[in-house]
Every structure is written in structure tokens, then in C-alpha cells.
């Protein structure tokens, strides 16, 4: 039991260190039916920090970011963003379940890119990117268009403004999806296996866009990925998940080159082979 | 008794004069079914469970009772509790609400076919629920079901003769009156059938065309219709570049 106690103290210590964290998971659990996907996650992300989540499928890494995007509700525990509980609202001293208004306010800090792009097929590329700035941020059409065109130029698609998603390749679609999320200027960007649905020859262009973005902006990023080289290049910290728990975390060089746990070693060996 | 051309030509204008009434009732009821059907679709998905449940049973109830019974109920029984409608309104509302339950099923199938990722992306973009429905989900859900919706317009049109039961003077009612006055039913009733064919057939061809178009992608549709989306967006680009 002393091990459990030590862990607790360590967690408390971590919590104290992470008072300034942008995003914080405190003992977050998530269950789908009988299947416990996350078993008490403690994780803090600093403003501007780039964190790569790696691990075998079913380890809970996608669930972590989906809960932050408010697409899944945690079974228990607290997620905070900018110090405010995401899924709860303070009424006096009590925490009550968040309503849509609360979620919408906190969601402005979060952006997400999906594995399957999820572009709006009935809108042009430009409208895909201007829709939220106009209707959510309340920018004028000119302002939103300027921002969107700027962003689309940055991802190399400035010449596709009037095209429809179905006319683009997978890599181009994903770059539009990145532009669509980043144009909202969130504080944290979530990337959910954004290259997994792409043909191999299209992976590079998407990763390059994210790399450039990571260097240029002070947005925090949480990247769920199977691309180990990419994780090494982009991330400040790599977190290895196994069975709903953090097995090992640290600098990319430590984690990817000198893995300590056997599980991480065997996980990595599958990628290097 | 043989076909009497002269009689047929003589009575044709009388029967055909009901054409505007039939068209009016059809489109009126269709409009009711399209809007009320959408409302039913929303109510059925309400997160307030009793409301969703009630809506489900309302739909089941309306679909499993004959429209003629409903028509009698609305026109003859409702006045007993103080709701009196004129025959046209009663007809339009009854047919409209009856078909709204079918139309609501059509909407539902369209909505279910929109990928889950579209809801998630809307959430990630922080759209309001209303914005998500009207700018993201419905614009994708409805075009594929337009042919099915169009079919219900035809079915509804062919259902209008039941309004004769409450004295609405549509084709069949007119024919019936002429038939009774002259003791000849062959010509008037044949003309009624002919009129229905004349109106249905072009509509069916139109729906076929819509069906073909709905199978094309968004970009192809844009070119075909020459929609102004490009124009307005393109303008905005130029403006922003200029400023």
C-alpha cells in the first residue's frame, strides 16, 4: 500500500506544480458499458505545450481528447481548462453538471481535427473555414474571409476556395480541416490520428502543415498519433498510454529512444521493425 | 350505353374548373405536411423523453387510422368540443397532418444518413444547436430525400377525392353531381381519371429528374444550377483583397 500512498503524494505534488496548467485532467475515468477505457487519468498540459499521445489502440488516447472537445462525457473526475471545470459549473460552492451555455463558452478555447476530416460537404472550402468565424465569433464576412484566405494560403490551398470537399484529395481535405479549426484561434488544438485515414503518399503534406503550425504558434497541441518520427519532431512531451493509464511519459528523446517499461519497449519495437 | 363525345366535351369545362381547387388543396396540405413533418421530427428527437414518447405515439396513431375517419373526426366531431373549421381548412389540415407523419419518417431517414462526424464537427466548431440543424444537418439530409418527398406530393394529390366526403367540390364531387343530374356516369368519371393522369404524369417526370440530380455531387449541382454561392463568396474575396 505504500506504493499507492507514494503515488498519491506524487499526484498531489504534480497538482501543485500544475496550478498554471491550461488543461488539467484530475482522476478522470471513462467507462463505455463494462469497458473502463480510462482508469483515473492525471495529466496537465501547459499553455503552448505540444503533447503527443501514443499507445496501442484501445489504450484510451482518443477518448482523452474527445472528452476535452466535449464529444464524450467523463464518467467521473474533473477536467479543467484555464482553471475552470469543463463538465461542471460552479454554483456557489457546489459543482453542478455543465449546461450547453457553459460548454459553448469553454469550447471557444478548443479546436479539433478529426481522423476522417468531417468537412461540411455542402459548403465550399472557403465557407467551411468562414462559417464558424462568422456565426460563432461574430466576425464580419470580410474579416472572416480575410482570415480564412490567409489560413488557407498557409496550408497551401489558397487556390481551392470555391472547390467542394469532394473535389479534393484526402491530404487536401485534412489541410482544410486544420485551417478550419485553427482559424478560430483556440488555445489548444486536438489532433485525432489525423493521418490514419490517408493514403501513405499524402501523409507527409499533412504532417508538414502541423509541424509548421507547431513552430509558428503558441497554441497548445495534443496529438494522438501513430507516427513516431512526427511525435519526436513536434512534441515537447510524449505520453505513452496503456490500458487506460499513463505508463510512461517524458521528453520525446527519452521516451522514444530509451523506453523504460517493457510495454513501451515492445510497443515501439513494432514501429521500428 | 356508349361514349357520347358531345356530352363529354360539354361537361369537361365544368369538371376541369375544379382544377385550381384541387391544386390549391394539394399544395396547401403538402405545405402543412412538410412543415408539420419537420416539427414532428424535431419533437421525436427531443431530449425531454415524455415529449418524444408522446410524439412517437401520435405518429403511430395517425398513421394507423384511415384519413377518411380523421377527416370526419376533424369536420364533424371537433365542433362538439368547440373547434369548428370550414371544410377547406379541415381538409387541408387533415390531409396535411396525416401525410406529415409519413414525411417525418422521410426526414428521419435523411437525417440518420448524415454521418455522425458532421454532428461532431459542428460541436467542435461550437455551432449552436439551431445552426447545426439548419446549416449543417438539414442541407445534407434533405436533398437525397427530395424524390421521396415528391412522391408524397403525388400520393397526396391522388388522395384529394376523399374531401368529397365533407362536400369539398373537387373533381369527383363535380363529376358525381353531373352524373346524378344526367344519369350518365361514364363520361364524367372518365374525365376525372383523365384529369388526374394529366396532372400526375408531368409531376412524376419532374420527380424523376430531381432524383437523377440528387444523385450527383455538390460540385456538379452547383455547376448545373449555376448557384450564386461562388459569386457571393468570390466577391467577398475580392473585397478583402482590395481592402
UniProtKB/TrEMBL annotation, chain B:
The keyword Membrane applies. The keyword Membrane applies. It holds the Pfam family BPD_transp_1. PROSITE patterns: ABC_TM1 (PS50928). Keywords: Amino-acid transport, Cell membrane, Membrane, Transmembrane, Transmembrane helix, Transport. InterPro entries: AA_ABC_transptr_permease_3TM, ArtM/GltK/GlnP/TcyL/YhdX-like, Ectoine_EhuD, MetI-like, MetI-like_sf. It is a multi-pass membrane protein. Residues 19-207 form the ABC transmembrane type-1 domain. Residues 221-243 are annotated as: Disordered. It is found in: Cell membrane. The chain crosses the membrane at residues 20-43, 133-154, 189-207. Belongs to the binding-protein-dependent transport system permease family. This is Ectoine/hydroxyectoine ABC transporter permease subunit EhuD. It comes from Mesobacillus maritimus.
Amino acid at each position: 500500500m505504500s506504493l499507492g500512498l507514494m503515488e498519491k503524494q506524487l499526484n498531489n505534488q504534480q497538482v501543485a506544480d500544475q496550478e498554471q496548467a491550461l488543461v488539467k485532467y484530475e482522476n478522470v475515468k471513462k467507462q463505455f458499458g463494462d469497458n473502463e477505457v480510462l482508469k483515473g487519468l492525471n495529466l496537465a498540459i501547459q499553455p503552448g505545450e505540444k503533447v503527443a499521445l501514443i499507445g496501442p489502440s484501445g489504450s484510451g488516447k482518443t477518448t482523452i481528447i474527445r472528452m476535452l472537445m466535449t464529444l464524450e462525457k467523463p464518467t467521473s473526475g474533473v477536467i479543467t481548462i484555464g482553471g475552470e471545470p469543463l463538465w461542471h459549473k460552479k454554483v456557489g460552492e457546489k459543482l453542478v453538471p455543465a449546461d450547453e451555455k457553459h460548454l459553448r463558452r469553454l469550447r471557444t478555447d478548443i479546436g479539433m481535427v478529426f481522423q476522417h476530416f468531417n468537412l461540411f460537404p455542402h459548403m465550399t472550402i472557403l465557407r467551411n473555414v468562414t462559417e464558424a468565424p462568422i456565426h460563432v465569433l461574430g466576425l464580419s464576412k470580410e474579416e472572416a474571409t480575410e482570415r480564412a484566405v490567409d489560413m488557407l494560403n498557409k496550408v497551401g490551398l489558397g487556390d481551392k476556395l470555391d472547390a467542394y470537399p469532394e473535389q479534393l484529395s484526402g491530404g487536401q481535405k485534412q489541410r482544410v480541416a486544420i485551417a478550419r479549426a485553427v482559424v478560430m484561434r483556440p488555445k489548444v488544438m486536438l489532433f485525432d490520428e489525423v493521418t490514419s485515414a490517408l493514403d501513405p503518399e499524402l501523409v507527409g503534406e499533412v504532417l508538414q502543415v502541423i509541424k509548421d503550425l507547431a513552430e509558428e504558434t503558441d497554441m497548445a497541441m495534443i496529438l494522438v498519433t501513430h507516427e513516431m518520427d512526427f511525435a519526436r519532431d513536434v512534441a515537447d512531451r510524449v505520453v505513452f498510454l496503456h490500458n487506460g493509464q499513463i505508463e510512461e511519459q517524458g521528453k520525446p528523446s527519452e521516451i522514444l529512444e530509451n523506453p523504460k517499461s517493457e510495454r513501451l519497449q515492445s510497443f515501439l519495437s513494432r514501429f521500428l521493425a | 350505353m356508349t361514349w357520347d363525345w358531345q356530352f363529354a366535351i360539354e361537361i369537361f369545362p365544368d369538371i376541369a374548373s375544379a382544377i385550381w381547387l384541387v391544386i390549391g388543396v394539394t399544395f396547401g396540405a403538402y405545405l402543412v405536411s412538410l412543415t408539420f413533418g419537420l416539427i414532428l421530427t424535431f419533437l421525436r428527437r427531443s431530449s425531454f423523453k415524455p415529449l418524444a414518447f408522446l410524439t412517437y405515439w401520435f405518429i403511430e396513431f395517425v398513421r394507423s387510422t384511415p384519413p377518411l375517419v380523421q377527416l370526419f373526426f376533424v369536420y364533424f366531431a371537433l365542433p362538439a368540443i368547440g373547434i369548428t373549421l370550414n371544410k377547406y381548412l379541415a381538409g387541408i389540415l387533415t390531409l396535411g397532418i396525416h401525410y406529415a407523419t409519413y414525411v417525418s419518417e422521410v426526414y428521419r431517414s435523411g437525417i440518420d444518413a448524415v454521418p455522425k462526424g458532421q454532428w461532431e464537427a459542428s460541436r467542435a466548431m461550437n455551432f449552436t444547436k439551431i445552426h447545426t440543424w439548419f446549416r449543417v444537418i438539414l442541407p445534407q439530409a434533405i436533398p437525397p430525400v427530395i424524390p421521396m418527398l415528391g412522391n408524397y406530393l403525388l400520393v397526396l394529390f391522388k388522395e384529394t377525392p376523399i374531401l368529397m366526403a365533407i362536400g369539398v367540390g373537387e373533381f369527383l364531387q363535380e363529376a358525381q353531381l353531373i352524373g346524378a343530374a344526367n344519369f350518365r356516369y361514364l363520361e364524367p368519371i372518365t374525365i376525372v381519371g383523365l384529369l388526374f393522369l394529366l396532372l400526375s404524369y408531368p409531376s412524376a417526370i419532374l420527380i424523376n429528374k430531381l432524383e437523377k440530380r440528387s444523385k450527383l455531387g455538390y460540385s456538379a449541382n452547383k455547376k448545373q444550377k449555376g448557384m450564386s454561392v461562388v459569386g457571393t463568396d468570390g466577391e467577398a474575396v475580392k473585397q478583402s483583397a482590395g481592402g
